[in-house]
Amino acid sequence: MTSAWSHRLRVRFHECDPQGIVFNANYVAYVDVALTELWREAFGSYEAAVAEHGVDLVVGSVTIDFRSSARPDDLIDVGLTLAAIGTTSITSAIEIRRGDDLVVEGTIRHVCVDAETLAKAPVPEPLRAALQAAYGPKA
After folding, report:
1. Which bin fits 106, alpha (ψ -120 to 50), beta or left (φ > 0)?
2. Nearest C-alpha neighbor of 62 from the set 97, 91, 89, 24
3. To 10 degrees, the CA torsion angle through 56, 134, 4, 45?
4. Which residues form a coiled coil (predicted)?
5. Were both Cys, which of 17, 72, 110, 115 would link to 23 (CB 3.0–4.6 Å)?
């Protein structure tokens, strides 16, 4: 997979375990950082995008397959591609690379909820269109 959008990070020493490799849970944090930057680029900020439409997003699922390891001071690219937008959910394909080396791949699914009640809500059409433009598969 070639990601439609990516954000570069440098692995910091404190993100690693005693074996000197990135602790597994930190990969989810890296994805969250990349998604925050994607929303900033697409909408100005996450808050601006969701507040305007009265919705919020919650994580429904994350899957990660570990292919190799990142270490302190490595530059990694957290790649995201819009895999699917359902009625109430947004699924992103994840690909984390160190150069040409695939470190992690997987998916993260966010569920759109009403900002006040937290009940499932449809993905607003303006968000759907902007996300497709920001990191949807390119033709």
Report:
1. left
2. 91
3. -50
4. none
5. 17
